[in-house]
Amino acid sequence: MTGKGASHAGQKLDAARKVAKRGESAPAMHARGVAAHGEVVETDVPARLDRLPWSRFHWLVVVALGITWILDGLEVTLAGAVSGALKESPVLRLDNAQVGLAGSAYLVGAVLGALFFGRLADQLGRKKLFSVTVLVYLLATAATAFSWDIWSFLLFRFLTGAGIGGEYAAINSAIQELIPARYRGRTDLAINGSFWVGAALGALGSVLLLDPGLLPPDLGWRFAFAIGATLGIVILFLRRFLPESPRWLLTHGRQAEAEAAVAGIEARVSAEKGPLAPAKGLIRLRPIGTASLARVAGALFRDYPRRTVLGLVLMGSQAFFYNAIFFSYALVLTSFYGVASENVGWYILPFAAGNFMGPLVLGPLFDTIGRRTMIAGTYAVSGILLALTGWLFHAGFLDAGTQAVAWSIIFFFASAAASAAYLTVGESFPLEIRALAIALFYAVGTGLGGAAGPWLFGYLVESGSSLSIFLGYLFGASLMVIAAVTELAFGIAAERRPLEAVAEPLSAVAIGTPPFVETRPKR
Questions:
Q1: pTM over 0.85
Q2: pLDDT at 457 (0 to 100)
């Protein structure tokens, strides 16, 4: 290390000597920054990250990593908005059920990608997975534009989902580990809400590219899928400027690298904001590296069974609620309201605006009022409003415009609820298994709720029965209300608390000075 990093390392060594004089355990200093197996290290790295003021570095984290949700929103919106064009394509000629099947293929790919890349993110680090996952996405979505039949289209949608699923696991964990505790809730919600920036891009892109006066019908949807590939190239560039998660480095015995990474972040922030406040809080770790699958299972089902149930319910309910409705959004507009396929994008724009504004406006309340109240409230309100809107749809009181407005209001709350599900599963479990935990909950929740939703609603729309669709909406609404009750029973107060206090690391030996004085609850 040189400059500030070397200076800070020297200060840490002096501090260690003072601790030793007081008769306490001092952190060991090791060559090349790797802790010897079984030795205890003491560090204030988490406290130093959490005491930072908001800065340009945090904006870089938000933009470079949060763009994943923009990509997902783009992909999901395109899949819905171009559904009419896919049915009219002289090459593909998909029917409604096959459009739903393509949505399910994307989600199944996301599930398997999250599991595979999530495990690698805990093993190899967050940063190493960034380029790999976005490259998988970039190549697959570009290949989608060259699909020649239903099977090639399904394959490329599956691979596109795999790249996005891998992004979710690595990036959710990295964002939570780099953002200060007092901003974690609102930041996580806002980033998840940026899905709808991608949705708006997809909607606008589809409106322009599906215009038969601009491009032939079989070319417009192909060019639409190229939008994501273009954004992927920008992401590869931005992520070069982000460090590895210092918290991940600590649990893998790479203390000096963690110290250097934090020193680099502090240098960026202090150059912008001036002298930094002192960090308060030490944690002692015996690095264990990658947790075994048995250790992962023990954490989920022995140490935190209530949190595991909560995570499954929150993720599963929002996945069905969202994917069932959004993947069938265009089908409902075209089949029941006679909206031309090239105009569907205009109806998605207000829907996307409501979804984006919900987490942005309500997000700060998750850090002030608290997680339990806000999560339960947004889930319950979403379910109730969907049931009411479903009845109005079945009764024939809505037209295309009022249906779009109703959905926008519903998803103002539902978007905050869904974003909070990702926040909950990310911060509720130990650092060593965080990426895999996110992947597992995403996989199970999406597999049970998300993959089945588009397929089911594709058939419901195909039936032409408004009653059948109303019953489908009631089922989704019921799941959201059940999730609200589960949150009230099992929810945790994680607002403004360090990740290490919410869920003690598996490698923790003893927790030292505040704010890390806390016993791990068996929940």
A1: no
A2: 73
Task: Write down the mean pLDDT value for the chain.
Answer: 81
Closest CA to 492 of 423, 418, 445: 423
Phi, then psi, of 290 in degrees rounded to 5: -80, 125
pLDDT tens digits, one per residue of 294-345? 889 999 999 999 999 999 999 989 988 887 776 677 778 887 888 887 677 7
The set of residues, in sequence order, having a beta carbon less than 8 Å from that of 488 and lying 6+ positions away, is: 372, 376
Contact assessment for residue 343 and residue 475, using Cβ atoms and an 8 Å cutoff: no
Given a contact cutoff of 8 angstroms between Cβ atoms, the answer to whether 280 and 56 are in contact is: no
What is the tens place of the pLDDT at every residue in 415-438?
999 999 989 998 999 988 988 888
Distance CA 196, CA 16 (A): 48
Using CA atoms, how far apart are residues 222 and 82, in angstroms rounded to an integer? Answer: 10
- Distances in whole angstroms, Cα of residue 41 to Cα of each of 47, 75, 174, 252, 288: 15, 44, 22, 11, 12
Closest by CA position to 152, among listed 142, 164, 144? 144
Question: What is the C-alpha to C-alpha distance for residues 46 and 80, in angstroms, rounded to an integer?
Answer: 42
Contacts of 245 (CB under 8 A, 6+ apart): 125, 126, 127, 173, 174, 177, 178
Q: Cα separation of 99 and 87, whole Å?
A: 8
